[in-house]
Amino acid sequence: MFTDLTAFNGAEFTTENHGMSADVINKAFLATEEDFLNLVKEQFETKPQIASVGSCCLVGIICSGLLYIANAGDSRVVLGRLEKAFKEVKAVQLSSEHNASFESVREELRSFHPDDPQIVVLRHNVWRVKGIIQISRSIGDAYLKKPEFNREPLLPKFRVPNSFEKPILQAEPAISVQKLRPEDQFLIFASDGLWEHLSNQEAVNIVSTCPRNGIARRLIKAALREAAKKREMRYSDLKKIDRGVRRHFHDDITVIVLFLDFHLISNGSSCRPLVSIRGSAGVSGNSKY
């Protein structure tokens, strides 16, 4: 599981269905969404800004040799697969972003909201849902899902000018299922802050050629160096930028690298076959990576 700030509900559904499936994962996403929206309802009058809080959610599950990927938002998972003929590890993207910058996402939004010509708006050369947010799916963001939260005391900048009847954003994930191969080496789960500065193949090259220890931090450092280079500044100077200002230079970056052991996976071993190495860099300017 990879998510910015949500807890994920799922165990009860695997028991109910006697195993893993896309339906189990979808139910877990919706249960997580429901729990969070109930929290918003409880606290809205005293803490109205909670209605504007949301998170992307990217989940990876390995069960019986199958890899399940579920995504709501603009995080991404990339697989490193060994191409034996070329003796190279190639990048294979396993998820697609729900971001209004993609024509397919804009078309999906228009199909869901045929009577709303302002469902996506181009503002300052950036496509945004209702001119506010770039993502089309998330956990939370209650103010764009429940009209009861699109009102005072929520700040005007978060409110949609016109009322709406059905949710503007969705919580349902896009889910893919595939069988793992012996040549599948590792998975990189990362927020969009990483992919803004590194291509899929650049990230895979770093993981495949560097020691495992600290590999997520190495990816983050590489992304921050690229962010500094784009601004024609030194990496050391970027790290000194104060909280709040740094967001203008790079987004939050969170990374999990998962190494795969096909022998253990295919045998259905009860041992933990995966090594998870995490790294995170915020925009506070306090990151040590």
Q: How does this model look, in words?
A:
The chain has eight helices and 13 strands. The strands form four sheets. The protein has a five-stranded antiparallel sheet with strand order 6-5-11-12-13. Strands 1-3-4-10 form a four-stranded antiparallel sheet, covered by helices on one side. It has a two-stranded antiparallel sheet with strand order 2-9. It has two domains: 1-60 and 97-174, no CATH class; 180-289, no CATH class. Helix 1 runs antiparallel to helix 2. 27% of the residues lie in helices and 24% in strands. Mean pLDDT is 85; it is low at 1-8, 270-277 and 281-289. The longest helix is centred in the first third of the chain and has 22 residues, at 22-43. It is globular. It is α+β, with helices and mostly antiparallel strands. Strand 5 (76-83) and strand 6 (88-93) form a beta hairpin.
